[in-house]
Amino acid sequence: MPIYEYRCPACSHEFELLVRSSTVPSCPQCGAGEPERLVSRIAPHGQTAGKLALARRAAAKEGHFSHYSAGERAKVLK
After folding, report:
1. What is the predicted pLDDT for the residue at 11?
2. Contacts of 76 (CB under 8 A, 6+ apart)
3. Which of 41, 42, 46, 61 is spaced 20 to 30 A from 73 at the CA atom?
4. pTM beyond 0.85
5. How far is Cα 4 from Cα 6, in angstroms, rounded to an integer?
6. What distance in Å separates the CA atoms of residue 6 and residue 17, rounded to the nearest whole number?
7. What is the pLDDT of residues 6-18, one digit of tens each?
8. C-alpha distances in angstroms, 67 versus 24, 57, 58, 63?
9. Strand, coil or helix: 17
10. Predicted confidence (pLDDT) per residue in 17-70, tens digit
């Protein structure tokens, strides 16, 4: 069963449900029975690179990369 994203035309509430393709869900907020199926996003915008960079900078401040040479640290902290 795939996860589908829906929008309720009555209350404009957007929600995701795990339903069979033949099942017609109702809106969890207002109970309307005819929600519009939306084209779901493929993947959210990535935040991993920024989080890794922050973690690397914090580790460098704490001396976790002290065994690396200056050139190696410059490569790692990019």
Report:
1. 92
2. 56, 65, 68
3. 46
4. no
5. 6
6. 8
7. 889 999 888 888 8
8. 60, 15, 16, 9
9. strand
10. 887 877 888 888 898 888 888 876 655 667 778 888 888 888 878 877 677 777
Per-residue model confidence (pLDDT) at position 20: 80
Residue with tokens 């959210």: 44
Ramachandran assignment for 32, one of left (phi > 0), alpha (psi -120 to 50 degrees), beta (any other): beta
What CA–CA distances, in Å, run from 31 to 22, 39, 48, 56, 77? 18, 21, 37, 48, 51
Q: How far apart are CA 4 and CA 49, in angstroms?
A: 28
pLDDT attached to residue 40? 65
Q: How far, CA to CA in Å, does 27 sit from each of 12, 14, 15, 49? A: 10, 9, 8, 36
Centre a 10 Å sphere on the Cβ of residue 65 and count the other Cβ atoms it contains: 15
